[in-house]
Amino acid sequence: MAAEDLKSPVILQTDDEDLEYGGMEYLSDLALGAARRSQVPVAFHLDRVSEYETALKSFRWGYSGMTVDCMGYNFEESIQRVNEIGVVAKALKVYVEICMQCFDENIKNHTDIEKAREFCENTICDGIVAVADTSHESYKGEVKIDFGHLKKMDQHLDIPIVLSEVSNVPNDQISKAVKSGIRKVNFNKELKEANKEGLGEFLFEHPHIIDMKTIYQPGRDKMYKVATEKIRACHSNNRV
Question: Domains (ranges, CATH) in the chain?
Answer without folding.
Answer: 2-186 (3.20.20.70)
